[in-house]
Design brief:
The protein has 449 residues and is α/β, with parallel strands linked by helices. The protein folds into 2 domains: 197 residues, Rossmann fold; 251 residues, Rossmann fold (3-Layer(aba) Sandwich), CATH 3.40.50.720. The protein is built from 19 helices and 14 strands. The strands form 3 sheets. Strands 3-2-1-4-5-6 form a 6-stranded parallel β-sheet, sandwiched between helices. Strands 11-10-9-12-13-14 form a 6-stranded parallel β-sheet. A two-stranded parallel ribbon has the order 7-8. Helix 5 crosses helix 6 and helix 10 packs parallel to helix 13. The longest helix is centred in the middle third of the chain and has 32 residues. The radius of gyration is 24 Å and the shape is elongated. The protein starts with a strand and ends with a helix.
Length: 449
């Protein structure tokens, strides 16, 4: 199959590269000449484990190319995927569809024969029909179908998610379009991965409903964590006891500083707005959004408390600022709420993140970027863990405690055990959903073991 992928952001680039690995001929199109030049040099503009190797393999095989020329890419294509951004629109929380509609208009002008125009971007219900209207208005008589094919890629695991998906969702209205989409995903069908064919509206809704449900699990466990702290329960034990129930499952039950990233914040906001527009308020989703905002702000109080009630004049070493590990994505990351508040409170903030600096330098002014955890911790009065990168999971706690001027830790990802931290020489330890340990008792227990 010949595929044109419009947009080389996270979704477009990963999808285009993986489609070429299926054996299809793919042209990835972007308006930014500098990005296309970068890709042609073999450089990947985002950090995604394994993506560079798969991209290089398919470029070498002649199946994957990059271009700024949408017209030539669309002409002769069997399927044209729209994978442009749909950010939250300022002021009203709606998804901004201007890039999608502009792409649809350009595609209409470039069509030379029948093609399926596939929306890969996350869009509100009804968008694919609007895409069809734009194409018909721009090119009356054009021979095409539209399809909805939402993505379900986790940043940091996108290649595996694409190659071994839980399911592929395809919204189509004609046998012709279904056949082409079936050919595109035939390598997955042959390996028995589920392909769910449905109508356009259901495919669009599946994406929003899935993300809102996952965000709900996160906000739920974060509210339970806050309650655990008050009543003396341990949220890690609570989450494990819940997650072993097959009806609930253990994924997305890890208490922390709140969700972020490119999907959950904007998709929950868009779903809430869709519900309001249609007179069916999504009360649970609206509450999830509010709880997530409160969770991020609660983390600020937690850090201030462990620092003795004020961060003014204190040095804080922050480990991790991307919204999750194995990505350089800073969008809606908890760090964008927590770190500016610490800087605003008079703290001197040092940041260590293996891939966050490229975006973080512009988003987090007033911090000092460092490459090494132990250097960042030297003379610091608080160690703050915001992102659970693997390199932060096995630190030499005794070395850190000796290097710090006042060794306290705010572990907002619950990656360490309180007793072990205090036994290593830390004077204080704060986590999420875990009772504040007594340093003397914790050290005694550890020594007895």
């Amino acid at each position: 199959m010949k595929i044109a992928m419009i947009g080389t952001g996270y979704v477009g680039l990963v999808s285009g590269v993986c489609f070429s690995d299926f054996g299809h001929d793919v042209v990835c199109v972007d308006k930014m000449p500098e990005k296309i030049a970068m890709l042609e040099r073999g450089e990947v503009p985002i950090y995604e484990p394994g993506l560079d190797a798969v991209m290089a393999r398919n470029v070498d095989a002649g199946r994957l190319t990059f271009s700024t020329d949408l017209t030539s890419a669309v002409g002769g294509a069997d399927a044209v995927f729209i994978a442009v951004g749909t950010p939250t629109r300022r002021g009203d929380g709606h998804a901004d569809l201007s890039y999608v509609m502009a792409a649809a208009e350009e595609i209409a002008k470039a069509l030379t024969r029948y093609a399926v125009v596939v929306t890969k971007s996350t869009v509100p219900v009804g968008t694919n029909r609007k895409v069809a209207e734009v194409i018909r208005a721009t090119r009356p008589g054009a021979d095409f179908d539209v399809a909805s094919n939402p993505e379900f890629l986790r940043e940091g695991a996108a290649i595996d998610d694409f190659m071994k998906p839980d399911r592929v969702v395809v919204g189509v209205e004609s046998d012709r379009a279904r056949d082409i989409m079936g050919d595109i995903y035939r390598p997955l069908f042959l390996r028995d991965f589920p392909i769910v064919y449905t109508d356009l509206e259901s495919a669009e809704m599946i994406k929003y409903a899935a993300n809102a449900f996952l965000a709900t699990k996160i906000s739920f466990i974060n509210e339970i964590a806050a309650l655990c702290e008050r009543v003396g329960a341990d949220v890690k034990s609570v989450a494990r006891g819940m997650g072993l129930d097959g009806r609930i499952g253990n994924k997305f039950l890890h208490a922390g500083p709140g969700y972020g990233g490119s999907c959950f914040p904007k998709d929950t906001s868009a779903l809430a707005r869709i519900g309001q527009e249609h007179g069916v308020p999504q009360r649970i989703t609206e509450t999830v959004i509010a709880v997530n905002d409160l969770t991020k702000r609660r983390m600020i109080d937690k850090v201030v408390d462990i620092c003795g009630g004020s961060v003014n004049g204190k040095t804080i070493a922050v480990l991790g600022v991307t919204f999750k590990p194995e990505t350089d994505d800073m969008r809606e990351a908890p760090s964008l709420t927590v770190v500016p508040a610490l800087v605003g409170g008079g703290a001197k903030v040092r940041v260590v993140d293996p891939h966050g600096r490229r975006e973080g330098e512009a988003l987090l002014p007033g911090v000092e970027w460092m490459d090494d955890t132990y250097t960042a911790a030297a003379g610091a009065e608080c160690l703050l863990i915001l992102t659970e990168w693997n390199q932060f999971r096995a630190l030499d706690l005794k070395r850190l405690a000796k290097a710090m001027s006042r060794p306290v830790m705010a572990d907002l990802r619950n990656i360490y055990e309180p007793d072990a931290v205090l036994a290593a020489g830390f004077e204080g330890y704060a986590a999420v959903g875990r009772a504040q340990p007594d340093p003397g008792l914790a050290i005694s227990r550890t020594a007895a073991q």
